[in-house]
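Moderator note: this is an archived Q&A kept for reference. The question asked for a predicted structure of one protein chain; the sequence and the answer are reproduced below.
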Amino acid sequence: MSATVITKPEVDISPELLREIKEKTEEMGQVVLHFLFHTPDNGFGDSLIRIWPTTYLYDLHSAHKSELVHIENITYYPDWYLCPAGSETFFTLIFSGLPKSCTAFDFIEHCTNESGAFQVKNIQRNASDVYFLQL
């Protein structure tokens, strides 16, 4: 499943929530990925999504991998999360921190899912370690 990094999300996120996430990120050294998943209304019906615990962030310049530590608004394998046709679903994944030397990383879900895994390659690191991605 392909994805693109969006630099200016069309989602209105509370400044309080962003401040709280930033404080927690800096305090705990976590990486936060916010996703927008669009389910088209193309006659094929609803979509089902989930995340496998074998999902990591890989530093492109070292052997480091950050582990998935928390999820919001999505389910872990083997359960499915329903995304109605024609809707947008927002979910968040929180990972352990990346090394300070990391400048770019890959987000890769390792799974045996027949419809494919979530992947975003070569994400350029920012100062806040909070990212907005669209699938």
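Archived answer notes: Strands lie at 4-5, 31-38, 47-49, 55-59, 65-72, 81-83, 88-95, 104-109, 119-124, 130-134.
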